Protein backbone atom coordinates (compact mmCIF):
# COMPACT_ATOMS: atom_id res chain seq x y z
CA UNK A 1 0.00 0.00 0.00
CA UNK A 2 2.62 2.46 -1.14
CA UNK A 3 2.40 6.25 -1.13
CA UNK A 4 1.24 7.87 -4.37
CA UNK A 5 2.41 11.42 -5.11
CA UNK A 6 2.90 13.81 -8.04
CA UNK A 7 5.46 16.32 -9.25
CA UNK A 8 4.67 19.88 -10.37
CA UNK A 9 4.14 18.71 -13.95
CA UNK A 10 1.42 16.25 -12.92
CA UNK A 11 3.50 13.10 -13.27
CA UNK A 12 2.38 10.47 -10.74
CA UNK A 13 4.76 8.20 -8.81
CA UNK A 14 4.59 5.46 -6.20
CA UNK A 15 7.12 5.55 -3.38
CA UNK A 16 9.29 2.41 -3.05
CA UNK A 17 9.43 2.54 0.76
CA UNK A 18 6.78 4.74 2.34
CA UNK A 19 3.20 3.53 2.74
CA UNK A 20 0.24 5.68 1.84
CA UNK A 21 -1.92 7.06 4.63
CA UNK A 22 -5.27 8.82 4.79
CA UNK A 23 -7.32 11.30 6.79
CA UNK A 24 -10.48 10.84 8.83
CA UNK A 25 -11.56 14.31 9.88
CA UNK A 26 -8.34 15.97 11.08
CA UNK A 27 -6.67 12.66 11.99
CA UNK A 28 -4.05 10.88 9.91
CA UNK A 29 -4.83 7.15 9.83
CA UNK A 30 -3.30 3.95 8.53
CA UNK A 31 -5.19 2.17 5.76
CA UNK A 32 -6.35 -1.43 6.06
CA UNK A 33 -6.53 -4.00 3.27
CA UNK A 34 -10.31 -4.45 3.53
CA UNK A 35 -10.85 -0.69 3.06
CA UNK A 36 -9.32 -0.67 -0.43
CA UNK A 37 -10.67 -1.46 -3.90
CA UNK A 38 -9.00 -1.13 -7.32
CA UNK A 39 -9.30 2.34 -8.87
CA UNK A 40 -12.72 2.24 -10.58
CA UNK A 41 -13.25 2.85 -14.27
CA UNK A 42 -14.09 6.50 -14.82
CA UNK A 43 -12.11 7.69 -11.77
CA UNK A 44 -9.55 10.49 -12.11
CA UNK A 45 -6.28 11.07 -10.26
CA UNK A 46 -5.59 14.69 -9.31
CA UNK A 47 -2.86 16.56 -7.49
CA UNK A 48 -3.83 18.47 -4.37
CA UNK A 49 -2.53 22.04 -4.74
CA UNK A 50 -0.51 23.67 -1.94
CA UNK A 51 0.26 20.32 -0.30
CA UNK A 52 3.13 18.00 0.45
CA UNK A 53 2.65 14.20 0.53
CA UNK A 54 2.66 12.42 3.87
CA UNK A 55 3.63 8.75 4.09
CA UNK A 56 4.32 6.18 6.77
CA UNK A 57 7.53 4.32 7.44
CA UNK A 58 6.26 0.71 7.75
CA UNK A 59 9.21 -0.27 9.97
CA UNK A 60 8.69 2.41 12.62
CA UNK A 61 5.04 3.33 12.00
CA UNK A 62 6.01 7.01 11.96
CA UNK A 63 4.42 9.54 9.60
CA UNK A 64 6.81 11.67 7.56
CA UNK A 65 6.69 14.38 4.92
CA UNK A 66 8.12 13.52 1.52
CA UNK A 67 10.97 15.94 0.74
CA UNK A 68 11.12 17.74 -2.59
CA UNK A 69 8.73 19.67 -4.82
CA UNK A 70 5.94 17.11 -4.73
CA UNK A 71 2.24 17.21 -3.90
CA UNK A 72 -0.28 14.78 -2.51
CA UNK A 73 -2.59 12.89 -4.87
CA UNK A 74 -6.28 12.05 -4.53
CA UNK A 75 -8.85 10.23 -6.64
CA UNK A 76 -12.16 11.66 -7.86
CA UNK A 77 -14.62 8.78 -7.91
CA UNK A 78 -17.54 8.28 -10.31
CA UNK A 79 -21.04 7.73 -9.00
CA UNK A 80 -21.57 4.33 -7.43
CA UNK A 81 -18.62 4.53 -5.03
CA UNK A 82 -18.48 5.83 -1.46
CA UNK A 83 -15.14 7.06 -0.14
CA UNK A 84 -13.92 5.89 3.23
CA UNK A 85 -11.03 8.34 3.66
CA UNK A 86 -9.62 11.63 2.38
CA UNK A 87 -5.99 11.61 1.13
CA UNK A 88 -3.19 12.15 3.65
CA UNK A 89 -1.40 15.48 3.09
CA UNK A 90 0.11 18.53 4.75
CA UNK A 91 -0.77 21.98 3.42
CA UNK A 92 2.09 24.30 2.49
CA UNK A 93 -0.22 27.34 2.51
CA UNK A 94 -3.16 27.08 4.89
CA UNK A 95 -4.81 30.19 3.43
CA UNK A 96 -5.41 28.37 0.14
CA UNK A 97 -8.46 26.15 -0.38
CA UNK A 98 -8.77 23.11 -2.64
CA UNK A 99 -11.05 23.27 -5.68
CA UNK A 100 -14.53 21.94 -4.92
CA UNK A 101 -14.09 18.22 -5.56
CA UNK A 102 -14.47 15.07 -3.46
CA UNK A 103 -10.93 13.80 -2.89
CA UNK A 104 -10.38 10.14 -1.96
CA UNK A 105 -7.23 8.49 -0.56
CA UNK A 106 -5.30 6.49 -3.17
CA UNK A 107 -2.33 4.10 -2.88
CA UNK A 108 -0.25 1.81 -5.13
CA UNK A 109 -0.72 -1.89 -4.42
CA UNK A 110 -0.07 -5.12 -6.35
CA UNK A 111 0.91 -3.25 -9.49
CA UNK A 112 -2.09 -0.91 -9.62
CA UNK A 113 -3.88 2.02 -8.02
CA UNK A 114 -6.27 1.34 -5.15
CA UNK A 115 -8.66 3.74 -3.41
CA UNK A 116 -10.09 3.85 0.10
CA UNK A 117 -13.70 3.33 -0.92
CA UNK A 118 -16.47 0.81 -1.42
CA UNK A 119 -19.05 0.22 -4.12
CA UNK A 120 -22.48 1.42 -3.01
CA UNK A 121 -24.35 1.20 -6.31
CA UNK A 122 -24.06 -0.10 -9.88
CA UNK A 123 -21.49 2.27 -11.42
CA UNK A 124 -22.10 1.38 -15.06
CA UNK A 125 -25.07 3.66 -15.86
CA UNK A 126 -23.08 6.71 -14.68
CA UNK A 127 -19.61 5.65 -15.82
CA UNK A 128 -18.24 8.69 -17.72
CA UNK A 129 -16.55 6.32 -20.16
CA UNK A 130 -19.99 5.19 -21.36
CA UNK A 131 -20.83 8.66 -22.65
CA UNK A 132 -19.92 8.73 -26.35
CA UNK A 133 -18.62 12.26 -26.90
CA UNK A 134 -18.91 12.07 -30.69
CA UNK A 135 -22.54 10.96 -30.48
CA UNK A 136 -23.22 13.63 -27.87
CA UNK A 137 -22.00 16.37 -30.21
CA UNK A 138 -24.27 15.05 -32.95
CA UNK A 139 -27.31 14.97 -30.64
CA UNK A 140 -26.60 18.44 -29.23
CA UNK A 141 -26.48 19.81 -32.77
CA UNK A 142 -29.72 18.02 -33.67
CA UNK A 143 -31.62 19.27 -30.64
CA UNK A 144 -30.39 22.86 -30.99
CA UNK A 145 -31.53 22.91 -34.62
CA UNK A 146 -34.92 21.42 -33.63
CA UNK A 147 -35.44 23.99 -30.85
CA UNK A 148 -33.47 27.07 -31.98
CA UNK A 149 -35.32 29.45 -29.64
CA UNK A 150 -35.07 27.30 -26.51
CA UNK A 151 -32.60 29.02 -24.17
CA UNK A 152 -32.56 26.07 -21.78
CA UNK A 153 -31.21 23.74 -24.44
CA UNK A 154 -28.48 26.28 -25.25
CA UNK A 155 -27.59 26.48 -21.56
CA UNK A 156 -27.52 22.68 -21.19
CA UNK A 157 -25.39 22.28 -24.32
CA UNK A 158 -22.65 24.26 -22.55
CA UNK A 159 -23.02 22.06 -19.44
CA UNK A 160 -22.81 18.89 -21.54
CA UNK A 161 -19.95 19.85 -23.86
CA UNK A 162 -17.82 22.14 -21.68
CA UNK A 163 -18.38 20.81 -18.14
CA UNK A 164 -19.02 17.24 -19.35
CA UNK A 165 -22.00 17.06 -16.99
CA UNK A 166 -23.49 13.60 -17.40
CA UNK A 167 -27.03 14.63 -16.46
CA UNK A 168 -26.98 17.42 -19.03
CA UNK A 169 -25.49 15.00 -21.55
CA UNK A 170 -28.31 12.55 -20.86
CA UNK A 171 -30.80 15.25 -21.82
CA UNK A 172 -29.41 15.26 -25.35
CA UNK A 173 -28.73 11.52 -25.52
CA UNK A 174 -32.30 10.86 -24.25
CA UNK A 175 -31.26 8.26 -21.70
CA UNK A 176 -31.34 7.73 -17.93
CA UNK A 177 -31.88 10.90 -15.84
CA UNK A 178 -32.01 14.12 -17.82
CA UNK A 179 -31.72 17.71 -16.60
CA UNK A 180 -34.19 20.58 -16.75
CA UNK A 181 -32.86 23.52 -14.68
CA UNK A 182 -35.40 26.24 -13.84
CA UNK A 183 -34.03 28.49 -11.08
CA UNK A 184 -31.44 31.25 -10.93
CA UNK A 185 -32.06 31.94 -7.21
CA UNK A 186 -31.73 29.99 -3.98
CA UNK A 187 -33.05 30.07 -0.43
CA UNK A 188 -29.81 28.65 0.98
CA UNK A 189 -26.20 29.80 1.01
CA UNK A 190 -24.45 26.42 0.88
CA UNK A 191 -20.82 26.67 1.92
CA UNK A 192 -19.75 24.33 -0.87
CA UNK A 193 -22.13 25.55 -3.59
CA UNK A 194 -20.74 24.57 -6.98
CA UNK A 195 -22.61 27.21 -9.00
CA UNK A 196 -22.35 30.39 -6.92
CA UNK A 197 -19.75 31.56 -4.39
CA UNK A 198 -19.24 34.94 -2.68
CA UNK A 199 -16.17 36.83 -3.90
CA UNK A 200 -14.47 36.42 -0.51
CA UNK A 201 -15.21 32.70 -0.05
CA UNK A 202 -11.83 31.46 -1.25
CA UNK A 203 -13.61 28.91 -3.48
CA UNK A 204 -14.06 29.10 -7.23
CA UNK A 205 -17.45 27.79 -8.34
CA UNK A 206 -16.70 25.13 -10.99
CA UNK A 207 -19.97 25.76 -12.85
CA UNK A 208 -21.90 28.79 -14.08
CA UNK A 209 -25.37 29.23 -12.64
CA UNK A 210 -28.45 29.65 -14.83
CA UNK A 211 -28.92 33.39 -15.36
CA UNK A 212 -32.49 33.64 -16.63
CA UNK A 213 -36.01 32.54 -15.76
CA UNK A 214 -37.13 29.91 -18.27
CA UNK A 215 -40.51 30.11 -19.93
CA UNK A 216 -42.91 27.25 -19.27
CA UNK A 217 -42.79 26.32 -22.96
CA UNK A 218 -39.00 25.89 -22.79
CA UNK A 219 -39.34 23.57 -19.80
CA UNK A 220 -42.14 21.56 -21.44
CA UNK A 221 -40.08 21.06 -24.61
CA UNK A 222 -37.27 19.40 -22.67
CA UNK A 223 -39.59 17.29 -20.53
CA UNK A 224 -41.55 15.92 -23.48
CA UNK A 225 -38.38 15.19 -25.46
CA UNK A 226 -36.96 13.16 -22.59
CA UNK A 227 -40.04 11.36 -21.25
CA UNK A 228 -40.39 8.92 -24.13
CA UNK A 229 -39.76 5.60 -22.35
CA UNK A 230 -41.28 4.06 -19.21
CA UNK A 231 -37.99 4.25 -17.27
CA UNK A 232 -36.90 7.75 -18.33
CA UNK A 233 -36.38 10.37 -15.58
CA UNK A 234 -36.43 14.14 -16.01
CA UNK A 235 -35.13 16.16 -13.07
CA UNK A 236 -35.55 19.69 -11.78
CA UNK A 237 -32.70 20.84 -9.57
CA UNK A 238 -29.22 20.72 -11.10
CA UNK A 239 -25.74 21.79 -10.08
CA UNK A 240 -26.03 24.73 -12.48
CA UNK A 241 -29.06 26.28 -10.76
CA UNK A 242 -30.33 27.45 -7.41
CA UNK A 243 -33.27 25.90 -5.55
CA UNK A 244 -35.87 24.72 -8.12
CA UNK A 245 -38.86 25.07 -5.80
CA UNK A 246 -38.39 28.85 -5.82
CA UNK A 247 -39.87 28.55 -9.32
CA UNK A 248 -42.77 26.37 -8.19
CA UNK A 249 -45.30 28.13 -10.42
CA UNK A 250 -43.27 27.32 -13.56
CA UNK A 251 -42.70 23.71 -12.43
CA UNK A 252 -46.35 23.07 -11.59
CA UNK A 253 -47.63 24.48 -14.88
CA UNK A 254 -45.02 22.53 -16.88
CA UNK A 255 -45.86 19.30 -15.08
CA UNK A 256 -49.57 19.72 -15.74
CA UNK A 257 -48.99 20.33 -19.45
CA UNK A 258 -46.65 17.37 -19.77
CA UNK A 259 -48.87 14.94 -17.92
CA UNK A 260 -51.78 16.00 -20.10
CA UNK A 261 -49.78 14.66 -23.06
CA UNK A 262 -47.90 11.64 -21.69
CA UNK A 263 -47.79 9.36 -18.68
CA UNK A 264 -44.40 7.92 -19.62
CA UNK A 265 -41.36 8.21 -17.40
CA UNK A 266 -40.77 9.80 -14.02
CA UNK A 267 -40.67 13.44 -12.94
CA UNK A 268 -38.07 14.06 -10.25
CA UNK A 269 -36.99 17.07 -8.23
CA UNK A 270 -33.61 17.54 -6.56
CA UNK A 271 -34.30 20.05 -3.80
CA UNK A 272 -33.46 21.27 -0.33
CA UNK A 273 -37.22 20.92 0.39
CA UNK A 274 -37.19 23.93 2.71
CA UNK A 275 -40.13 25.71 1.09
CA UNK A 276 -42.80 23.35 2.43
CA UNK A 277 -45.79 25.04 0.76
CA UNK A 278 -44.04 25.10 -2.62
CA UNK A 279 -43.06 21.46 -2.24
CA UNK A 280 -46.64 20.56 -1.40
CA UNK A 281 -47.86 22.21 -4.61
CA UNK A 282 -45.21 20.45 -6.71
CA UNK A 283 -46.06 17.11 -5.09
CA UNK A 284 -49.77 17.60 -5.77
CA UNK A 285 -49.06 18.39 -9.44
CA UNK A 286 -48.00 14.77 -9.98
CA UNK A 287 -44.42 14.43 -8.78
CA UNK A 288 -43.01 10.89 -8.95
CA UNK A 289 -39.60 11.16 -7.28
CA UNK A 290 -38.08 13.55 -4.74
CA UNK A 291 -34.41 13.71 -3.77
CA UNK A 292 -33.65 16.02 -0.87
CA UNK A 293 -30.13 17.31 -0.34
CA UNK A 294 -28.84 17.16 3.23
CA UNK A 295 -25.56 16.98 5.08
CA UNK A 296 -26.86 16.16 8.54
CA UNK A 297 -29.99 15.56 10.59
CA UNK A 298 -28.56 17.77 13.34
CA UNK A 299 -29.67 21.41 13.24
CA UNK A 300 -26.33 22.96 14.21
CA UNK A 301 -24.41 21.06 11.54
CA UNK A 302 -27.11 21.49 8.87
CA UNK A 303 -27.40 25.23 9.47
CA UNK A 304 -23.63 25.77 9.44
CA UNK A 305 -23.31 24.28 5.97
CA UNK A 306 -26.59 25.20 4.24
CA UNK A 307 -27.13 28.63 5.82
CA UNK A 308 -30.89 28.32 5.19
CA UNK A 309 -32.85 31.49 4.48
CA UNK A 310 -36.37 31.41 5.88
CA UNK A 311 -36.63 27.68 6.56
CA UNK A 312 -35.40 25.05 9.01
CA UNK A 313 -34.58 21.37 9.02
CA UNK A 314 -38.10 20.84 10.37
CA UNK A 315 -39.48 22.26 7.10
CA UNK A 316 -37.36 19.74 5.20
CA UNK A 317 -38.75 16.90 7.27
CA UNK A 318 -42.29 18.18 6.76
CA UNK A 319 -41.87 18.22 2.97
CA UNK A 320 -40.51 14.68 2.92
CA UNK A 321 -43.32 13.35 5.09
CA UNK A 322 -45.96 14.97 2.89
CA UNK A 323 -44.42 13.66 -0.33
CA UNK A 324 -44.17 10.14 1.10
CA UNK A 325 -47.82 10.28 2.19
CA UNK A 326 -48.77 11.02 -1.44
CA UNK A 327 -46.85 8.04 -2.82
CA UNK A 328 -43.76 9.92 -3.99
CA UNK A 329 -40.60 7.79 -3.94
CA UNK A 330 -38.38 9.84 -1.63
CA UNK A 331 -34.61 9.81 -1.16
CA UNK A 332 -31.87 11.99 0.25
CA UNK A 333 -28.78 13.25 -1.49
CA UNK A 334 -26.57 12.65 1.56
CA UNK A 335 -23.37 14.71 1.39
CA UNK A 336 -20.88 12.58 3.28
CA UNK A 337 -17.41 13.21 4.67
CA UNK A 338 -15.10 10.73 6.47
CA UNK A 339 -14.67 11.60 10.12
CA UNK A 340 -17.94 13.55 10.19
CA UNK A 341 -20.77 11.50 8.71
CA UNK A 342 -19.55 8.47 10.66
CA UNK A 343 -19.71 10.21 14.05
CA UNK A 344 -21.91 8.49 16.61
CA UNK A 345 -24.28 11.45 17.03
CA UNK A 346 -24.61 11.93 13.26
CA UNK A 347 -25.50 8.27 12.71
CA UNK A 348 -28.11 8.25 15.48
CA UNK A 349 -29.73 11.47 14.23
CA UNK A 350 -29.86 10.30 10.61
CA UNK A 351 -31.39 6.92 11.48
CA UNK A 352 -34.15 8.75 13.35
CA UNK A 353 -34.67 11.18 10.45
CA UNK A 354 -34.94 8.34 7.92
CA UNK A 355 -37.44 6.44 10.04
CA UNK A 356 -39.63 9.51 10.70
CA UNK A 357 -39.80 10.57 7.05
CA UNK A 358 -40.31 7.13 5.48
CA UNK A 359 -37.37 7.48 3.10
CA UNK A 360 -36.91 4.75 0.50
CA UNK A 361 -33.35 5.49 -0.62
CA UNK A 362 -30.17 7.06 0.79
CA UNK A 363 -27.88 8.33 -1.95
CA UNK A 364 -24.35 8.42 -0.54
CA UNK A 365 -22.63 11.35 -2.26
CA UNK A 366 -19.02 12.32 -1.58
CA UNK A 367 -18.93 15.95 -0.42
CA UNK A 368 -16.96 18.29 -2.68
CA UNK A 369 -15.11 20.50 -0.21
CA UNK A 370 -11.77 21.60 1.22
CA UNK A 371 -11.36 19.42 4.35
CA UNK A 372 -9.91 22.04 6.71
CA UNK A 373 -12.43 24.68 5.66
CA UNK A 374 -15.34 22.30 6.23
CA UNK A 375 -14.10 20.96 9.56
CA UNK A 376 -13.58 24.50 10.89
CA UNK A 377 -17.17 25.36 9.97
CA UNK A 378 -19.08 22.55 11.69
CA UNK A 379 -19.47 21.43 15.33
CA UNK A 380 -16.75 19.16 16.75
CA UNK A 381 -17.41 15.45 17.27
CA UNK A 382 -19.36 14.58 20.42
CA UNK A 383 -19.01 10.81 20.43
CA UNK A 384 -17.17 7.91 18.86
CA UNK A 385 -16.16 7.93 15.18
CA UNK A 386 -17.04 4.55 13.69
CA UNK A 387 -15.54 4.81 10.20
CA UNK A 388 -17.36 4.99 6.88
CA UNK A 389 -17.27 1.25 6.22
CA UNK A 390 -18.86 0.58 9.61
CA UNK A 391 -21.42 3.33 9.01
CA UNK A 392 -22.69 1.57 5.90
CA UNK A 393 -22.98 -1.69 7.81
CA UNK A 394 -24.94 0.08 10.57
CA UNK A 395 -27.37 1.62 8.10
CA UNK A 396 -27.99 -1.70 6.38
CA UNK A 397 -28.70 -3.35 9.73
CA UNK A 398 -30.79 -0.56 11.29
CA UNK A 399 -32.65 0.42 8.09
CA UNK A 400 -33.22 -2.90 6.29
CA UNK A 401 -36.07 -1.55 4.11
CA UNK A 402 -34.07 1.46 2.90
CA UNK A 403 -31.92 1.16 -0.22
CA UNK A 404 -28.32 2.35 0.13
CA UNK A 405 -27.22 3.71 -3.23
CA UNK A 406 -25.50 6.55 -5.03
CA UNK A 407 -27.97 8.07 -7.50
CA UNK A 408 -31.68 8.35 -8.31
CA UNK A 409 -33.37 5.07 -9.19
CA UNK A 410 -36.62 4.15 -10.85
CA UNK A 411 -38.80 2.68 -8.06
CA UNK A 412 -39.04 -1.12 -8.02
CA UNK A 413 -42.81 -0.72 -8.34
CA UNK A 414 -44.26 2.44 -9.78
CA UNK A 415 -45.86 4.55 -7.06
CA UNK A 416 -49.54 5.40 -7.32
CA UNK A 417 -50.13 9.06 -6.69
Automatic annotation (TrEMBL):
UniProt keyword list: 4Fe-4S, Iron, Iron-sulfur, Lyase, Metal-binding, Pyruvate, S-adenosyl-L-methionine
**Required cofactor(s):** [4Fe-4S] cluster
A Pfam family name for this chain? Radical_SAM
Q: Where is the Radical SAM core domain?
A: 181-347
- UniProt-recorded Gene Ontology molecular function terms: 4 iron, 4 sulfur cluster binding; lyase activity; metal ion binding
Which SUPFAM superfamilies does the record associate with it?
Radical SAM enzymes
Q: Which InterPro entries does the entry link to?
A: Aldolase_TIM, Organic_radical-activating, rSAM, rSAM_sf
User: Known PANTHER family for this protein?
Assistant: PYRUVATE FORMATE-LYASE 1-ACTIVATING ENZYME, PYRUVATE FORMATE-LYASE-ACTIVATING ENZYME
Listed name of the protein: Pyruvate-formate lyase-activating enzyme
